[in-house]
Design a protein that fits this description.
The chain has one domain. Helices cover about 70% and strands about 0% of the residues. The protein contains two helices and no strands.
Length: about 100
């Protein structure tokens, strides 16, 4: 009979422990789910920011813009083909040119 009471006490004590563990695990799951959602939102923001930066780089490095800056701001001009001087060094070691 005493053994039956001990078994009953063990069962009565383990049920609230299991319920408490279940509640703790549920709270932890909700917390982790919120953290995942926050990180996913941050990732979306980073991706959008990177897209904007890449588009900005494309605009800033366009050949038309570079040519405009070179001509207007730096007073540079395109070199004419007849102004190119080609120097050939013959003899000596071959360098693969």
């Amino acid at each position: 009979m005493k053994r039956l009471y001990v078994l009953l006490y063990v069962v009565v004590l383990t049920i609230p422990i299991f319920l408490g563990l279940n509640a703790w695990q549920s709270a932890r799951y909700i917390s982790l789910e919120r953290e995942i959602n926050r990180l996913e939102d941050a990732q979306v923001e980073w991706v959008e920011s990177n897209k904007r930066l890449i588009a900005g780089i494309a605009v800033l490095s366009s050949p038309e813009r570079i040519e405009h800056i070179a001509q207007k701001d730096l007073q540079l001009s395109r070199i004419q083909p007849e102004d190119v001087l080609l120097v050939r060094i013959e003899g000596g070691k071959e360098r693969g040119f």
